[in-house]
Here is the input.
Amino acid sequence: MFEVKQYDAVVIGVSAGGLAALGEILPQLDKRIPVPIFIVQHVSPDSDNFMPTHFDSHCHVSVKEGEDKEPPEKGTVYFAPPNYHLLVELEKTLALSVEERVNYSRPSVDVLFDTAAEAYGDKLIGIILTGANSDGALGLRKIKQFGGLTIVQSPETAEADSMPRAAIEATDVDHLLPLSEIGVFLNSLLMDKGA
Amino acid sequence: MNQEPEQIENERLEIKLLLEAIYLKYGYDFRNYACAHTKRRLEHRLNVDSMENYSAMQHRLIHDEAFFNTLLLDLSINVTEMFRDPWVYSKVRELVVPHLKTYPFIKIWHAGCSAGQEVYSMGILLEEEGIKERSQIYATDFNELILQKAKQGIYPMDVIREYTANYQKSGGKQSFSDYYTADYDNVVIKQSLKDKVLFSSHNLVTDGVFGEMNLIFCRNVLIYFDRELQNRVFNLFYESLCPGGFLCLGSKESLRFSSVADKFEVVSGREKIYRKKR
Ligand SMILES: C[S@@+](CC[C@H](N)C(=O)[O-])C[C@H]1O[C@@H](n2cnc3c(N)ncnc32)[C@H](O)[C@@H]1O
Here is the structure.
């Protein structure tokens, strides 16, 4: 029997090369996409967080910086603020933290993925994109353990391939996709196909 | 290996019981802290000490106070720096200090002061504005170990470069090195900055008002509390401020959705500076 699975959220982890990679994926997303999307993009602590503003004006979905205690809405992309970890609470609200760096990073992909897996269980899609470190590998493995769907950008299409490679190393990932296909894939997976 | 839903539920139950045990045994109440963060900190300790599960951890913390103290350090995030978010301090100079200058005697409370960096930053600011001599700073935290560090005011040399950059961006008027003496690996904050500070233990969850303040700094503490607990603490601050007193929160914290929102005016949105209405 074939069962169509419903997903409730998407998390994305990305580092070096993120502006271009997200610039390929986010503008493709349908504005009626029925889930929230959380992104950790490594940025320097005193960056002004140009990305949410930039993508908000270039995408169909709305894009903003995640706020502490904010209840996430569908069709919206939330970026972790510079110098804060972004977490998801069990009751599915956002939380921020100034705790120590994880994998030399704050925000850290592992922190987001770990807590999102706890909150969304098997209703979560985790995606690792380009990056020159290994943040997110453990987090993606946890998403898989909790029954979620795991996607990694195929290393050949990544500006920096260590983050995708570390993720593939740590987890038996469900889909390896070239950058150009990830946005389309998400639309087709998440949009209601009308029976 | 997949996690069974029941196993996950059981683990959450164990964590609840563990927080209950901490409260009953030691009086520290973490039951209304943001869960995701608490879970991560406990998991960290579980892994570092290779413990079987949270029930084993609960047993140990009940019988072993030293272990509980370690756990307390894990749970209270002490990450801090001098002149953190420098633009906040320049706004304080610009918008708050002129009001402070009108008082014959100034009381300032740093709630959740961690290892003291924020407190000494304020001391420097007050000194440069010429109002330190008539100020009294109360610096509180619920973690005794971290308060000891705060009193000593000794910080590793390798963070000083960052602190110096922050100081300069904050509108500092001197050379930052005027405020400490350096030995090999550490710097020691100079005594005159410590004279005006009273460090003491205070738990925002369980303790009450202890004086009427002109300015309260409580930065990066409330993000760890749930809404209910935040509202309790906002009320405590409201009660602790003189009419027209100022409250400064962390850059990602806000009074906006709180139960006291209409009792304060916004002095500066980005810097999260508020003023109690008269
Ligand atoms: C992240 S630090 C913030 C330090 C400093 N205010 C800053 O912004 O750089 C949080 C501090 O809050 C303290 N804290 C946490 N819960 C508390 C409570 N219930 N009562 C008093 N202090 C608390 C912790 O011990 C820790 O030192």
